[in-house]
Amino acid sequence: MTEDYYPYIKDFFRRWAGIYDVVILLLTGVRRQTVAMTKPQEGAEILDVATGTGKQAFAFAKSGYKVTGIDLSEDMLKIARKNNKYNNLKLEIGDATKLSFEDNRFDVSCVSFALHDMPSDIRQKVVEEMMRVTKPEGTIMVVDYALPRNKIMRNVAYRMIKFYESKYYPEFIKNDFNGLLIKAGIRVEAERRVLFGTGRIIKGINGKA
Predict the structure, then answer these.
(1) Judging by beta carbons within 10 Å of its beta carbon (0-12, 13-18, 19+), is residue 157 exposed, middle or buried?
(2) What is the pLDDT along the chain (209 residues), one digit of tens a residue?
(3) CA distances (Å), 144 to each of 86, 87, 169, in order?
(4) pTM, whole model, 2 decimals?
(5) I need a labelling partner for 39 at 20 to 30 A (CA). Which of 14, 56, 118, 140 fits?
């Protein structure tokens, strides 16, 4: 599955780039909630991994933090750059499995609605890289899909989301996601369900020594 990840995901977002911001309009409130839940310290430096069209990065930058957003897709970054009005935000092409930043660089690392678009081994590498570039006791924010607790709603949500999401979504949603974070050394400090239970915001702490 990993062998075709890069060409597959670049083509996937090339096709979605033009309408992506319309599709994710419902996430506007989630972006603001993520910033509020992160509670970065004044002057914090933030990395937004798989930034896409930049909406989460914009939400952090609007609050005055120094932000760097990276993404694999030049098509998505082209839109982010066009809409970027913040001098405190840099947008760069980059592979989240091989981040170009030094160890312990950022106060906060965030990945928002992106890990579900990765096979499990890529997902693990991304989380490990986020840990590497985040300061010890720094904040790791993960925002992604969940399933409602109600059985009927779970089935409806799963089928609807599977219809338009990448081929990696079914494996992602069935796995022990919190277990992946804990295994990587992230202490889960708080979790908030959003979007009627179909999404979640997780605030973690980098527990590496």
Answers:
(1) buried
(2) 576 898 888 888 887 666 555 555 567 789 999 999 999 988 999 999 999 999 999 999 999 999 999 999 999 999 999 999 999 999 999 999 999 999 999 999 999 999 999 999 999 999 999 999 999 999 999 999 999 989 999 999 999 888 888 899 999 999 888 888 888 889 999 999 998 999 999 999 998 76
(3) 25, 27, 11
(4) 0.92
(5) 118
